[in-house]
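U., I forgot to send this yesterday:
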Amino acid sequence: MLIEIEYCVPCGYLDRAIEAQRALLTTLGQALGGVTLKPGDSGVFTFRADGDVIYSKPDEFDITTIVETVKARL
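Result:
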C-alpha cells in the first residue's frame, strides 16, 4: 500500500507531515510500499492510501486514528 501525505508548505505543515510519516513507517514498516510527502498549498493536509482519501483537513488530526485506518486496509 502506498501512502501519500499532501501538506501545505506556506502553512508550515511540513513538520506535522514528517511526524505522521515517521509514525506510519515505525508502526507499519515493511507492510507499506512507501509513505511519500507531496508539497501543496491553500491549507491542504490530506492523507491518501492507494489514492483513496483517508484523512483531510479540517477533520480533527489524530495520527493514531490514521494509523489504525491504514492498518485495517492492509
